[in-house]
Design brief:
442 residues; two-stranded parallel ribbon; 10% strand; disordered N terminus
Length: 442
């Protein structure tokens, strides 16, 4: 009896461990014959798949996910065990990617999407751009688009992409995309990407979009590039909401609507250190360190009190009646606190999911901090849906008109039209100045 039990236990442990290990293995799609009505989608840098969820809502089917992060891979498999899954994009040829997607006969791909790692272009850090190892992953992603030639492609990234210089050597054949003397000009990376995609046969538009304008209860700005191989013109994403209901649109969704019915007892969250809770207990919803007395401000912030900048994120309780600020990958970092409006804690994992519009039942795997990171890095579901709706309209040759005078961004020259005009104007000026300096030497 004992022997039989031990053998059974050993078999159970073996099967369990084998299952866990297999999650980490690359896997080919088990969906060989998907519904022909489904639009074929290949997803790269997939993370927790917020973008994919939004696209699924309007008829896309993800045949392949590409993700190098262990916990994100576990999340992907937990929610879609039949999906094709690969790791580091740099390790796969075009043929291998299509094979893992179950598209061995070179069937046409409707859409490729991806948000390459953003740290290389983020306003924080060294801003090494494409010289960063993660930036080179961006170039590999473009190469995949060029080789597979999907009907449509979408690239998502941080605002820093619009101001990044081009920091790696240009090959001679690449100088048609960016003149070498323009590499150090702000925006050179975006201009290079723009020209390279156009050379690959794509019309495109891009803008700095605020997710609140698309129904997300969060003010989050990201660059989104939409490329089409089958249209002569690509309009901007069509907003569904505006801050105060301008242009006949719905008003922005607020935090209260997203967190309705939730409390800290039914989900997991990280804790604030006790020394910081002392100050949080003095603050109400929508307040931050500035609402403390001056003496307490200095005590709470320490040396940071004397630094420049707005310091809005210090000791910040969110407001019920506004969209959430951008969700960061850790809700309790001193300069970017995301404190609950009333409870003495940061936002919880489930609240993060609600704000990013993940279904409550969507499983997020990994450690507590890793769960926050996956959700914080995701594309909000409503933004994914807006992207999908635009692409479907383009695929059906339906006319999509931009809303005149709609302010997509609070910054200047963030739309493809204004960005290109501004960059080329600055480029001409730079070249003229260099020519004058050369003449003055003679």
């Amino acid at each position: 009896m004992c022997m039989a039990l031990c053998v059974w236990q050993f078999q159970f442990i073996y099967i369990y461990l084998h299952t866990i290990i297999s999650v980490m293995d690359d896997r080919k799609s088990q969906v060989k014959n998907s519904n022909k009505k489904d639009l074929k989608l290949l997803s790269f840098f997939s993370g927790a798949m917020g973008l994919d969820i939004g696209l699924h809502k309007v008829g896309f089917k993800t045949l392949l996910a590409c993700e190098i992060d262990k916990s994100s891979r576990e999340t992907i498999v937990a929610n879609n065990p039949k999906i094709g899954l690969i790791g580091d994009i740099r390790n796969y040829s075009t043929e291998e990617i299509l094979e893992y997607a179950g598209l061995e006969n070179r069937e046409e791909v409707d859409l490729i999407v991806g948000g390459p790692p953003c740290q290389a272009f983020s306003s924080a850090g060294n801003r090494r751009g494409l010289a960063d190892e993660r930036g080179n992953v961006f170039l590999k992603f473009i190469e995949v688009i060029e080789n597979i030639q999907p009907k449509f492609a979408v690239i998502e990234n941080v605002r820093g992409l619009l101001s990044a210089t081009y920091s790696i050597d240009l090959k001679e054949e690449e100088e048609i995309f960016l003149a070498p003397e323009l590499k150090e000009l702000k925006g050179a990376t975006m201009y290079y990407i723009y020209n390279r995609l156009r050379d690959a046969g794509y019309q495109l538009s891009f803008n700095l979009y605020n997710s609140a304008n698309y129904g997300t209860p969060q003010s989050r700005e990201r660059v989104i590039i939409v490329c089409s191989r089958v249209n002569d013109y690509v309009p901007y994403l069509k907003p569904t909401h505006s801050k105060d209901g301008e242009f006949g649109l719905k008003k922005w969704k607020v935090l209260k609507s997203a967190l309705k019915g939730l409390n800290g007892n039914n989900n997991e969250f990280i804790k604030f250190p006790e020394k910081r809770l002392k100050y949080y207990r003095l603050l109400k919803a929508g307040e931050n360190w500035r609402n403390l007395t001056e003496e307490l401000q200095k005590e709470a912030l320490g040396k940071s009190y004397y630094l420049g900048g707005g310091k809005t994120g210090f000791f910040r309780r969110l407001s019920w009646d506004k969209p959430s600020p951008t969700l960061v990958t850790h809700p309790a970092m001193p300069a970017t606190d995301l404190g609950h409006p009333e409870e003495d804690r940061p936002l919880s994992v489930l609240e993060y999911k609600r704000i990013q519009e993940f279904p409550d039942e969507w499983e997020i795997k990994g450690s507590l901090i890793n769960k926050y990171k996956q959700i914080g890095n995701a594309v909000p579901v409503s933004v994914g849906k807006a992207i999908g709706q635009l692409i479907i309209s383009l695929s059906k040759n339906k006319k999509v008109e931009n809303i005149p005078n709609f302010k997509y961004s609070r910054y200047l020259n963030t739309s493809s039209e204004s960005f290109v005009l501004d960059f080329e104007k600055r480029a001409r000026k730079l070249i003229e100045e260099k020519e004058k300096n050369q003449l003055s030497l003679f």
